[in-house]
Design a protein that fits this description.
The chain is an alpha+beta fold. It has five helices and nine strands. The strands form two sheets. A seven-stranded mixed sheet has the order 2-1-5-4-3-8-9. A two-stranded antiparallel sheet has the order 6-7. The structure holds nickel (II) ion. Nickel (II) ion binds near residues 76, 80, 83, 84 and 171.
C-alpha cells in the first residue's frame, strides 16, 4: 500500500515539474497567444524523438523501424546491478501477460553505455529477460542523442571501491510508452508492479 502511494506522489511530483518546465518554455518565446491554444498534455511534448542506433543483431535502426507498433522504451546498460535487473523482468512479465497482443509492442532496451554494450553484449543480455526484447546501442554521440530525446540522465561514476577500470552509470529508470506514431503516451516509474504495467499497456493497445 505504501509503495503504491509513494509511486503516485512520485508521478504527481514529476508531472507537476514537467508542467512547470513546459510553462517556463512557453513564456520564453511564444508570447500571450500561447494561452489561447487548446490544452495539450505537457508531458506529450517532453519525451521521444528521432534516434539512430544499432540493434542487438547488428542492424542499423531508427525510430521509423517501429512505426505502427507501440514502443516501450527503457534505458540502461548490461553491467547495471540495480535498476535494470529490477525493471527489465517487470517489462518481460507484462509482455507475457499481454499474450498475442504483445505483438503490437516493440520493447526497446536502449544502452547508456557505448563502451561495453556492443551488439553481441546486448544480444546476450536481452535474451536473459525476454525473447522479444530489442537491445539498441551505438556510438557515444548516438546514445547521447537518444538519451537527450527522452530526457534520460546518465552519469558515469568511477569510484575507488569499483576497482581499476571499473565503473557504474547512474541513469534514469522510467519506462516510456510511445504510440504507433512515435508520440509519447505515458510513463511508468521504476519498480512499477507487473500488474500495473500490464493494465496500462492493455488500456492503450486494446
Ligand atoms: Ni540500470
Amino acid at each position: 500500500m505504501t509503495g503504491r502511494i509513494n509511486r503516485r506522489i512520485l508521478l504527481a511530483g514529476f508531472a507537476a515539474g514537467a508542467a512547470v518546465a513546459a510553462r517556463a518554455q512557453d513564456h520564453g518565446g511564444h508570447g500571450p497567444s500561447s494561452a489561447a491554444r487548446p490544452p495539450l498534455d505537457p508531458l506529450a511534448t517532453q519525451f521521444g524523438g528521432p534516434f539512430s542506433l544499432t540493434d542487438h543483431t547488428g542492424k542499423r535502426v531508427t525510430e521509423a523501424e517501429f512505426r505502427g507498433r507501440f514502443m516501450l522504451v527503457y534505458f540502461g546498460f548490461t553491467a547495471c546491478t540495480d535498476t535494470c535487473p529490477v525493471d527489465l523482468p517487470i517489462i518481460a512479465q507484462a509482455l507475457d501477460a499481454l499474450g498475442p497482443q504483445a505483438a503490437k509492442v516493440a520493447p526497446l532496451f536502449i544502452s547508456v553505455d557505448p563502451v561495453n554494450d556492443t551488439p553481441a553484449a546486448m544480444a546476450t543480455y536481452v535474451a536473459n529477460f525476454h525473447q522479444r526484447l530489442i537491445g539498441l546501442s551505438g556510438s557515444e554521440a548516438e546514445i547521447a542523442a537518444a538519451a537527450r530525446a527522452y530526457k534520460v540522465h546518465r552519469r558515469k561514476l568511477t569510484q575507488a571501491h569499483h576497482g581499476q577500470g571499473q565503473y557504474t552509470i547512474d541513469h534514469g529508470s522510467l519506462t516510456y510508452l510511445m504510440g504507433p506514431d512515435g508520440r509519447f503516451l505515458t510513463l511508468l516509474p521504476h519498480r512499477t508492479s507487473p500488474d500495473r504495467m500490464t493494465a496500462v499497456l492493455r488500456k492503450y493497445i486494446s
